[in-house]
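Re: [ENG-882] Designed sequences occasionally contain unexpected residues at chain ends

Forwarding the minimal case from QA. Structure tokens:
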């Protein structure tokens, strides 16, 4: 089975650095997972955004905390969800001195939308369309688009001015032999909301979908894309 990222990028997937293709190129049929550990050089948030970020903390979507030299881990598992969709987990942990903060997501490839849909948080109540391209440095560039909220029978699209767009670039540094990541979240009216940048190592390990830890799976799954 083709990975959801190769499905989304098509032939452009092969422009990625081999190490990036390795991290983004596996599916549930490959029986592997990716474990990464490193340090975020800087994590920053806008003080005006403390309240919405604090609300997001309860559902593992960003957080109102910043710092430098913050230990970081990331776990990516591929599996088929209960709706039959190829899915990849993004379980990110930021280990501050007195708290461990989470920024989690699960991603699927939506044939209906012709792109990856990113369910942010641990309850899949926020669905975000992603545009994915190959960066000039061989990294993978991800930009968020339309955002939709789903909770019970409720479902609606957020107006553009009320959203925050994310720009992500992950690449491999051959000289330093590590992965690097840069993330910026911006609101069209108020400017930067949340940022982090750092470096990490990642390894591919054997992992059958039936062995995926339960704590990395969402607490509920949303069928609407």
């Amino acid at each position: 089975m083709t990975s959801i990222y190769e499905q989304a990028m098509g032939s452009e997937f092969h422009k990625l650095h081999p190490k990036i293709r390795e991290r983004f190129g596996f599916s549930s049929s490959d029986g592997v997972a990716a474990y990464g550990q490193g340090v975020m050089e800087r994590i920053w948030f806008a003080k005006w955004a403390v309240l919405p970020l604090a609300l997001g903390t309860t559902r593992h979507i960003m957080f109102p905390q910043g710092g430098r030299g913050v230990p970081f881990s990331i776990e990516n598992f591929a599996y088929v969800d209960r709706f039959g969709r190829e899915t990849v987990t993004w379980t990110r942990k930021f280990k501050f001195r007195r708290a461990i903060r989470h920024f989690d997501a699960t991603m699927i490839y939506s044939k209906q939308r012709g792109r990856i849909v990113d369910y942010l948080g641990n309850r899949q109540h926020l669905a975000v369309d992603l545009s994915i391209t190959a960066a000039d440095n061989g990294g993978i560039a991800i930009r968020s688009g339309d955002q939709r909220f789903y909770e019970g029978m409720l479902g609606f699209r957020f107006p553009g001015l009320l959203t925050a767009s994310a720009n992500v670039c992950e690449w491999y540094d051959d000289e330093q032999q590590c992965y690097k990541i840069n993330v910026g979240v911006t609101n069209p009216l108020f400017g930067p909301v949340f940022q982090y940048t750092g470096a990490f190592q990642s390894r591919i390990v054997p992992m059958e979908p039936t062995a995926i830890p339960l704590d990395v799976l969402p607490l509920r799954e949303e069928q609407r894309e």
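QA comment: On inspection the terminal residues look reasonable. The chain has three helices and eleven strands. Proposing we downgrade this to a documentation issue.
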